[in-house]
Specification:
249 residues, 10 helices, globular
Length: 249
């Protein structure tokens, strides 16, 4: 069944695809598209606390951190409406689905609102599509009905593999497909976001992450179909053109 769905979607893409370019309102509140992100290996507690302070100040959609910092994020965001996003199986995605499921369940029990999981790219490239499906489905099952975003690592995939990854993510119950970890030598592109949105349609949303540093780049991603932007440059994006320079880490 999954193979037949993939073949149908690849064919549909080849026959019907045209680049997506949505008209955006002039008063777009871009802050509500941003997952304010800190995932680097040398992130310190003070940096995470600052991330949360910035998210509250600029009213970003969420902060995105590794699961080990979730308790600190809970304390730092207490009383605010900022959501808490964590990454699962990050950044390589090559641990077992049981481990990904446990990490997701733990984070769900400890207050996470959204889960950005990394697929096993090697299994995808080897054509082990049922295994990739089961991997994603395990995280979806473990997420307490909350939002799961699937990082497909576009820079490592061929065009057809991107289509396949999006189809599998959609069929496994993901809420979003996401471009990149930012750790594999490439990031979000307008072309990839457009392709991903075409494939998933209204069944999923698209998150563009990796290398989105300016307001112009963020708006281009949103126009191409992104509903969320993952970036550590959120302050620059929302304050670009402002007389004030807010700095940042």
């Amino acid at each position: 069944m999954l193979k037949a769905i993939i073949e149908r979607e690849v064919r549909r893409y080849k026959e019907e695809y045209s680049p997506i370019k949505r008209e955006l309102p002039e008063n777009l509140n871009i802050a509500k598209f941003i997952d304010h992100t800190l995932l680097k290996a040398d992130a310190t507690p003070k940096m995470v606390e600052k991330l949360c302070e910035e998210a509250i100040r600029f009213e970003f959609w969420s902060v995105c951190v590794n699961t080990g910092y979730l308790p600190l994020v809970n304390r730092s965001l207490s009383g605010s409406t900022i959501r808490k996003t964590v990454v699962i199986g990050f950044p390589l995605g090559q641990m077992s689905r049981e481990v990904k499921g446990f990490e997701t369940s733990w984070a769900c029990d400890n207050g996470a609102d959204e889960f950005d999981m990394v697929i096993n790219v090697g299994l995808l490239k080897s054509g082990e599509y049922e295994s990739v499906f089961d991997d994603i489905a395990k995280v979806v099952e473990s997420a307490c009905g909350k939002t799961v975003k699937v990082i497909i690592e576009t820079s490592l995939l061929t065009e057809e593999e991107k289509i396949v990854a999006c189809v599998i993510s959609r069929e496994a119950g993901a809420a979003f497909v996401k471009t990149s970890t930012g750790f594999s030598g490439g990031g979000a592109t307008v072309d990839d976001v457009s392709l991903m949105k075409f494939v998933v349609g209204d069944a999923c949303k698209v998150k563009a992450s990796g290398g989105v540093k300016s307001r112009e780049e963020a708006l281009a991603m949103i126009s191409a179909g992104a509903s969320r932007i993952g970036t550590s440059s959120g302050i620059n994006i929302v304050s670009e053109g402002s007389k004030e320079n807010w700095g940042g880490y």
